[in-house]
Amino acid sequence: MNFLASPTIVTAMAFSGKLSFNPLTDSLPLPSGEAFKFEPPIGQDLPANGFTPGDLSFYPSPIPEPRPETQVVISKDSQRLELLEPFTSYFPEETSNPRDLELPPLKILMRVRGKCTTDHISAAGPWLKYKGHLTNISENLLITAVNDEGGDVNVAFDHDHAPTEPPTDTIPGVAKRLKARDQPWALVVDDNYGEGSAREHAALQPRFYGCAMIIARSFARIHETNLKKQGVLPLWFADKADYTRIGSGDIVETVGLSDLLQGGTRSTIEIKVTPRNGELFTVLTRHTMSVDQLKWLRAGSALNHIRSVTV
Predict the structure, then answer these.
(1) Burial 174-187 (b: 16+ CB within 10 A, else e)
(2) pTM of the full predicted structure?
(3) DSSP annotation string for 100-125
(4) 310 phi and psi angles, rounded to 5 deg
(5) What is the radius of gyration, based on Cα positions, of the chain?
(6) What one-character-per-residue DSSP string does 193-243 give?
(7) Percent of the chain with pLDDT strictly greater than 90
(8) Domain Aconitase A/isopropylmalate dehydratase small subunit swivel, which positions (predicted)?
(9) Which residues face 187 on adjacent strands?
(10) Residues 238-251: pLDDT tens digits?
(11) Any idea what the Cα angle at residue 272 is, between residues 267 and 278, rounded to 5°?
(12) Which of 151, 180, 188, 307 is deepest in the core (most CB within 10 A)?
């Protein structure tokens, strides 16, 4: 077991030899037979006359006034850095989405099996040199994830492939094909999706390739928030068994998101599923979107929303 305590408490416990020792109420036996009791330390929490200013040369420089005309120039040949373009919104202010405030029809890229950490989603190691180049680092999207339809690692199915294209490719390969066709997509994932280190690229990369929604048995909390910041809608299966009912190539549509984006307070969103082979059905999902996070989604990302209210 692990405990967090102050140095004073730890010292008192060390003298007593017991973790149950309470220096405020308990005493220690002395060799003479008498009892010894600690007295709480006394001191000033803050200096009575305030802190000395110290060496002013260590103070940060005054923040200069913004200069909008300033340009950040990055070589087009750079493999490590590139300028980020704002993500577009899926809703009418920025696009011609025919479904108004519902997400457009999304194609399921794949169903991810089992443990899928942020390192599965965006591998580290030698890839870290591309952290400043979203196009390049996105080439590692989900490359160690297991496809539940077949059990292969880094394999995805392209059910609409051209005659000149193979029916399978790497996961980023199929994601790029969908992006080239202007086909937004979604993922179906297992429990605790996105556990591990809280790396922003694990949310940036799927969004960059056109991911608009991820439906999970459950999410790791920080990654779920990171997805929201990038304008990706995270949903939880109300019935975890529905995870196996949706597969690659199926088309999914939200029902009820429009109500939320217009101020509704519902806690569930229905997903209408049109399978590649089979009859249409619906599954129920839950969301954890706050009022502010719904604004991020509608704007396309948290940064888009912040810019819209500050510029």
Answers:
(1) bbbbbbeeebbbbb
(2) 0.80
(3) TTSPPPEEEEEEEES---HHHHB--G
(4) -115, -20
(5) 27
(6) BT-SS--THHHHHHHHHTEEEEEES-B-HHHHHHHHHTT-EEEEESSGGGG
(7) 77
(8) 107-239
(9) 110, 214
(10) 999 999 999 999 99
(11) 150
(12) 188
